[in-house]
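TASK: fixed-backbone design
INPUT:
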């Protein structure tokens, strides 16, 4: 991932230094359990442990040296083990004893994915907090609800944020499930039958590392686990894009209900000084597209030849760190966007008012049907009055519909006004908040 989209914590987690550190940790954990079971002499293990800890204290392995060795070996793990053993004595012969490369690589990869996923989960919790805050803030602000991009019925502006809050909670639960699913390692050898490292030793090592044993592995951990993880990241990206798309629409000049924060010295356009573009929302939409692309590649990695081939390897070197780092960036950008989002309450009310009261047409239709009118006839009358009042503002919707004697016999002026009132149409909003356990008293910020 290019540096523009990588934040410091994720850059650290996916650095070569951290990768080799994880490989060393796995190698040391294996040697310790092998020593406990008598495969490695105790004295040799103690010397190996001292040597590895000394390497760690001195700053870890030299990535350049490993790359230099890989030029000759054409094998990254052999280059790694060679770089370690050249800094050890005779005890170095016990490093990587009875293991195949994927035992180390896949187990360490699960550790990296687990740590990264836990960090992403903390970022989602931050996003949940700001969505909850803004849901309360705008719970009592009526706004124009739209379907197909067209005026539909009134809704509450806070319900937008409440829906996003709920989806983010679901995505947190999905990520937690994906974390549980990816927290598996393997030390079962070249074809997965535990010919050298027994299943008991394998379980002991993996338990020490905070992982579970892959019940039936080949030379690798099955890639459906990784596909599940990356697909979950892409689904979280879809949730972020859902928010971004709505905010992009609400920022259009014709709508102008919200604006992204605009810092001192910021410029909107190189050619048009008046512009204030929705750049963060658009950026998030683009990032979500990339995340969906990564999911497709992860799915392609599930099917491997026999007990293992390496067709997945080159894909994962790019897809796994990139998708994690990009999602971290995208969550953070959305959190900042929502924190600094400006909502123009006056414009929200104006857009709602401009619909001439027709937004309650559905309620009047139902009331007429309840009064005994045939649905088709009621629909014809209500539709005609609504379209006329929108086309000619000289007379309001209620006044026009009362001109129909079939209506005036069933409904009076006050009842019609009640049916199209905000109080009536939004009477269940507080119940929705209560049922989502967000029934705190509204703490509305002053909106313009």
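OUTPUT:
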């Amino acid at each position: 991932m290019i540096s523009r989209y990588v934040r410091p914590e994720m850059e650290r987690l996916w650095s070569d230094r951290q990768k080799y550190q994880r490989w060393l940790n796995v190698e040391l954990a294996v040697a310790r359990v092998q020593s406990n079971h008598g495969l490695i002499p105790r004295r040799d293990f103690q010397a190996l442990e001292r040597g590895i800890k000394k390497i760690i204290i001195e700053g870890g392995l030299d990535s350049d040296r490993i790359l230099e060795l890989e030029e000759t070996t054409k094998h990254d793990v052999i280059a790694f083990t060679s770089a370690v053993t050249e800094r050890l004595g005779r005890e170095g012969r016990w490093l990587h004893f009875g293991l195949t490369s994927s035992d180390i690589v896949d187990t360490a990869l699960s550790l990296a994915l687990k740590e990264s996923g836990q960090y992403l989960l903390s970022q989602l919790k931050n996003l949940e907090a700001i969505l909850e805050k803004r849901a309360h803030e705008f719970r009592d602000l009526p706004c124009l609800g739209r379907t197909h991009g067209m005026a539909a019925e009134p809704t509450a502006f806070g319900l937008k944020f409440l829906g996003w809050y709920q989806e983010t909670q679901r995505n947190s639960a999905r990520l937690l499930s994906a974390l549980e699913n990816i927290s598996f390692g393997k030390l079962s050898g070249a074809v997965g039958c535990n010919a050298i490292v027994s299943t008991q030793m394998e379980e002991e090592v993996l338990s020490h590392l905070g992982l579970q044993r892959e019940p039936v592995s080949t030379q690798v951990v099955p890639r459906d686990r990784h596909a599940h993880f990356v697909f979950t990241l892409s689904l979280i990206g879809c949730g972020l894009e859902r928010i971004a798309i709505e905010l992009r629409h609400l920022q259009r000049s014709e709508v102008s209900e919200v604006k992204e924060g605009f810092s001192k010295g910021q410029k909107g356009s190189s050619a048009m000084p008046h512009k204030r573009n929705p750049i963060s929302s658009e950026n998030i939409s683009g990032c979500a597209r990339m995340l969906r692309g990564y999911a497709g590649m992860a799915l392609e990695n599930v099917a491997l030849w026999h007990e293992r081939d390496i067709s997945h390897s080159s894909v994962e070197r790019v897809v796994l760190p990139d998708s994690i780092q990009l999602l971290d960036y995208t969550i953070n950008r959305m959190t900042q966007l929502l924190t600094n989002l400006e909502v123009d309450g006056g414009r929200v009310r104006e857009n709602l008012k401009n619909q001439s009261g027709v937004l309650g047409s559905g309620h009047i239709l139902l009331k007429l049907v309840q009064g005994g009118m045939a649905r088709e006839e009621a629909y014809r009358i209500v539709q005609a009055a609504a379209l006329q009042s929108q086309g000619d503002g000289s007379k309001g919707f209620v006044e026009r519909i009362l001109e129909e004697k079939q209506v005036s016999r069933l409904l009076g002026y006050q009842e019609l006004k009640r049916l199209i009132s905000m109080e009536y149409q939004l009477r269940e909003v507080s119940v929705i908040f209560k049922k989502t356990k967000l029934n705190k008293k509204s703490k509305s910020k002053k909106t313009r």
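COMMENT: The radius of gyration is 31 Å.
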